[in-house]
Amino acid sequence: MALIFIRTTIIFVVLLLIMRLMGKSQIGEMQPFEFVISLVIAELACIPMADSSIPILYGIIAIVTIFILHEIVWLFELWFKPVKNIVSGKPSVVINKNGIDEFQLKKNNLDVSDLIESMRVAGYFNLDDVYYGIYEANGSFSALEKEEKASLSLPLMLIDRGKADTQNLARCGFDRDELKKFLQKQNCKEKDVVAMTVNGEGRVYFQKRGEHYKILQYEVKGQW
Q: What predicted TM-score, i.e. pTM, was given to this entire model?
């Protein structure tokens, strides 16, 4: 029992030292390769702590080796910009002056609902509350916000990359026929829409694929 306590304490101290040497990004938002390193280190630390038959030195050497590899990758990133882009990735501008960049969303395996969720976490409830929206390499969301936000009413997602949300349509009083008529006025079909939202005041954010977004008005019938 005492041996396990001592071994665990030693591994803990070594891990704490290594994580401090790796820098603050290991404590806060991590780059992809740093996240992988953290997972590997955690696994390496568990083995000598749980199995007393394995020399503790093996675990320490493995952890220190991972730290050395981390430093080598960091130096390559510092000296060669392409390496940083390959290993850590680069920011993606998912909202620009025209609205949502569908290509960047696909590239990052995201849909409009994911984007809206990230915006809400950042304090933006409408897609046109920001001039630019950026997913950083570490996955966090940054934005250049507009001076005046569109509305305090919570918008519902009606169409997300060509697919309608039937539950949200019902909540705001849209049925399929009304949606079809609305889209006909915009000279498009459901599959041509990147995003369409409507808030409680009937304010519609509408973006057709390949075009600048529009702000339209619709008389909502439901309540939410």
A: 0.65
DSSP string, the chain: -HHHHHHHHHHHHHHHHHHHHH-GGGTSS--HHHHHHHHHHHHHHHHHHH-TTS-HHHHHHHHHHHHHHHHHHHHHHHH-HHHHHHHH---EEEEETTEE-HHHHHHTT--HHHHHHHHHHHT--SGGGEEEEEE-TTS-EEEEE-SS-S-SSPPEEEEETTEE-HHHHHHTT--HHHHHHHHHHTT--GGGEEEEEE-TT-EEEEEETTS--EEEE-------
| 138 pLDDT more than 60 | yes
Buried b (16+ CB within 10 A) or exposed e, 178-201: ebeebbeebeeeeeebbbbbbbbe
- pLDDT tens digits for range 66-77: 788 778 877 887
Residue (of 92, 88, 73) closest to 138 by Cα position:
88
